[in-house]
Amino acid sequence: MVELNASELLKADKAYLIHPLYHPQDHGEPLIFVKGEGAILTDVKGRQFIDGLSGLWNVNVGHGRQELARAAEEQMRTLAYCSSYAGSSNVPAIQLAARLRELSYPSLNTVFLTSGGGEANESAFKTARFYWKAKGKPDKVKIIARQLAYHGVTLATMSATGIPAYWKMFEPRVPGFLHIPSPYPYRFEGTKEGESIGAAAARALEETILREGPETVAAFIAEPVQGAGGVIVPPDDYFPRIREICSKYDILFIADEVITGFGRTGRWFALMRWGVEPDILSFAKGITSGYLPLGGIMVSDIIREMILSVPYEDRWMHAYTYSGHPTCCAVALKNLEILEKEGLVGRAEQMGKRLLQGLQTLYELPGVGDVRGLGLMAAVELVADRGTKRPFDPALKVGRRVRREAQERGLFTRFIRDVLILAPPLVVTEEQVDRIVEILRESIQVGVPGRG
Ligand SMILES: Cc1ncc(COP(=O)(O)O)c(C=O)c1O
Q1: Which of 40, 326, 335, 434 has most Cβ atoms within 10 angstroms of its Cβ?
Q2: HSE (CB half, 13 Å, CA atoms) of 229?
Q3: How far is the CA of 161 from the centre of ligand 1 (A)?
Q4: How far apart are alpha carbons 412 and 344 in whole angstroms?
């Protein structure tokens, strides 16, 4: 193959590739990355950037880990792939399932593996429906999700995703998906006298279950910290109350820990902070730190018993070619070993505190409405008016402008609406954390119009 230079690569990229969430307007001058080391990415022109989003919230152990490359190579040389359909299995998949049991919630001991997060949530929805059918309640099929949720973009997971921009050009959505408000402390409306935001947001779930009829609802799905919706950290009383409501009405609780799993929030899994256990856990991203595609679900012992005990003609007819992919599982095992050996979960908590404290100093800048975060997930929400929390006119494209300024200063990240998102690798250094804050300060000063 002919080697292309930087400008030829740019031209070929534009000519031959469709990218995720694509519009050519967003892809005028794409960065073409060629190398990663720790929290630093290098592009084809030799420019270096702090990776402010860990790839796509997934490169938890940082870039350039030779031991992960070696784990993949060794497994590929031995047995790159085999089927995991009923009647066959492989060693890394078995070892990974055993390790996940140890790391996750006590009542979740059984794993089904997929290639990513969307497939994981699809598997969770189908498993919830399966469970209720097997239990003789075939009408329990609806899934309640939340506004601003992101659960993937397959047709069903898109329908669970609570961001209408993802639906617009692909409607109609799959029927039976409902959305309730998020526990979004900065913007939540609808608390009653003396009621906390956490309790009010959880009340929306109870009211929706009662309105729809508990006999029609299969599951409630939630990200412990909403990621793509803008790093929305719930109040501490929210998830304990959600768990109570799900148990009271016999609704399965699916925790979508695709971003929050594997240390991102300073715990192995985020709901552990609040002492809450889900019935189904979806995971992906950080399980391999993005070195190879892998995701999956873990199910409660009660669901497992149901899968094991149904008659043959009612069996769990769900599958992927790459379920239990030996090479992906071998890399996941090595990645989990690194997370543990290097104490990266605790480091996410520590570095997250430093990042949040740094970002809070940005409140002195006009246009900074809210700063929030948990572990190494953080966000800065920009507003036109701090008093009323009025957003900027979308035509001003403030988020995009600030992001571009940040990029010019060596920070690669993403904005959603006018929310700047930060989730650096768990190996990010103190100096890099401080530099991220410094770059954002300058970028907001230059990129935010007027005086808010
Ligand atoms: C919380 C959450 N769930 C699910 C997904 C979908 O994962 P994938 O893109 O691997 O299908 C994502 C992706 O960003 C996510 O953030």
Answers
A1: 335
A2: 26
A3: 10
A4: 22
CA angle, corner 203, sides to 197 and 209, nearest 5?
150
For ligand 1, the distance from its centroid to the CA atom of residue 436, given in whole angstroms, is 25
SS3 444: helix
Indicate the burial class of 15 (C-beta count within 10 angstroms; 0-12, 13-18, 19 or more).
exposed
pLDDT digits (tens, 9 = 90+) for 234-276: 999 999 999 999 999 999 999 999 999 999 999 999 999 999 9
Q: Which residue has the tokens 């969430």?
A: 21
Cross-strand pairs, 385: 390
Number of Cβ within 10 Å of residue 263's Cβ equals 28
Q: Considering only CA atoms, which residue is closest to atom 7 of ligand 1?
A: 117
Taking the CA of residue 257 as reference, the ligand 1 atom at the shortest distance is: 1
Q: Please give the average per-residue pLDDT across 444-449, as a whole number.
A: 92
Distance (Å) from CA 364 to ligand 1 centroid: 34
**Residue pLDDT, tens place only, 90-124:** 999 999 999 999 999 999 999 999 999 999 999 99
Residues 141 and 127: their CA atoms lie apart, in Å, by: 11
